[in-house]
Amino acid sequence: MSRIDAFNPATPSFDTALHQGGAQGGQSAVGHFGGQQVQVDDANSVLTDAAEEISLHHSEKAESKHSSERRKEATRAMEMMSPEAIMAYMDASQSQGEPEELVQLAKRMLSGQGDPAAQARKAFGEPTQQFMALQYALQQGEREGAAPEILDSLREALDDLEMEHGPRIRADINTIGTAAEGAQGRAEVSQFQATYRDVVLGNNSLSGTLRLALERFGDGDFAGGLARLIKALGNDLAAARPSGDPSRLQSLVQDLYHLSVAATVLDDSRALLEGLAAKHGIALGSAPGLMQDLVGVSAEKWVAGSRFTALAEKFGAGGVAPQIQFLTGVKLLLRDMPPKVFIDADQRQTVFQAVQDALDAAIDREDY
User: Where in this protein does the record put region Disordered (predicted)?
Assistant: First the structure.
């Protein structure tokens, strides 16, 4: 299978060769970095080792690039990808049925009948796939000696896509190898790409990033999801044209590393809710949902005990005994939450005091 390296002709990078299947769960993942083969034993080793190596490898590169150079780089036109790289991307993203479909679309674009941009939008709903189709048609037209006005219309359509969706397109291209790993269909590839873009191109706080990760990965392999995001960030950073400011991408690597401990908190949340269901007959609640609520509280500046009493009732712990068990467990969950999720140390202490107040109130009710 072809490598998708047209945007990274000289820079050492994570191996984005496209493998059928890919690593899943606890299986080893094998790739290349700096010309050397790298084997990752499991998700947790990715979270620790990859985060450290990515930061060390790119810190000097990120610091040395002047901001004016980055602005200039962000506005220049995208490099052309080879037809093989385009086909490899489309195959990895599972965006088309057969390669012949892309060939036929290029022929329609080069026929001069219809707007190439509109034809690309009709064929593909996402900007990156549209970008691939237009690039493929442009190169085909240049080889065949198509009319200059047709080639100009293709270049204009590509320029418009770059202006409107450049960072998104670069994010998709730079990380397609990771997005395709283990994906069972187009929907899974697209979901990971959307999650990566939301993390990298959004303006989330650390708590916002955690809530997003819980929403996307909480019901499955949460630690594995974070590991894939870190790996994708490494691919993006190593590309000749990253999707965003390398300094910010490097900072996100560290953020995700800090969030790795949240996998344990998620497991403990699940155990707490299962214990409540077994002991008190309460309907089993959602562990990712509980964690998202707790992360939300961590971002609130003013928190009272009533906030946690209401949370207990939301999860079915309205009675005194189940409420005491719930609040005792929540107190431990908050203690183990990544400290940087909270606004600051004072607010963290305020949250601890609020849950203690709610617990004390429940215990007082038990005494009567």
Answer: 1-31, 57-76
Within a 10 A sphere around the Cβ of 98, how many other Cβ atoms?
A: 8
Q: Which residues contact 250 (CB under 8 A, 6 or more apart)?
A: 54, 55, 58, 59, 62, 237
Distance CA 31, CA 19 (A): 10
Q: Contact, 181 vs 22, CB < 8 A? A: yes
For the stretch 61-70, pLDDT in tens is: 444 444 444 4
Report in angstroms the alpha-carbon separations of 321 from 108, 268, 326.
Answer: 70, 19, 9
- Rounded to whole angstroms, how far apart are CA atoms 279 and 15? 49
Dmax over Cα atoms in the chain, in whole Å? 90
Q: What is the pLDDT of residues 124-138, one digit of tens each?
A: 989 999 999 999 999
Secondary structure (3-state) at 80: coil
Domains and CATH numbers, the chain: 29-259 (no CATH), 262-366 (1.20.1280.80)
Measure the CA–CA gap between 15 and 187, rounded to whole angstroms.
23
Read off the amino acid at residue 313: E
Residue 68 in 3-state DSSP? helix
Q: What is the pLDDT of residue 368?
A: 66
Q: How many CA atoms lie within 13 A of 290 on its CB side?
A: 30
Cβ–Cβ < 8 Å for 109, 137: yes
> Is residue 318 a contact partner of residue 358, using CB atoms and an 8 Å limit?
no
Token readout for 291 is: 């964690």
Tokens for 266, please give them: 């998620």
- Distances in Å between the Cα of 277 and the Cα atoms of 235, 267, 271, 334 are 43, 15, 10, 21
Q: Is 49 left (phi over 0), alpha (psi -120 to 50) or beta?
A: alpha
What's the pLDDT tens digit per position in 193-226?
999 999 999 878 899 999 999 999 999 999 999 9
What are the start-end ranges of the H helices in the chain?
Answer: 43-45, 51-64, 67-75, 83-92, 99-110, 116-123, 127-144, 148-174, 176-180, 186-201, 206-217, 222-238, 246-259, 262-280, 287-298, 305-314, 320-336, 345-366
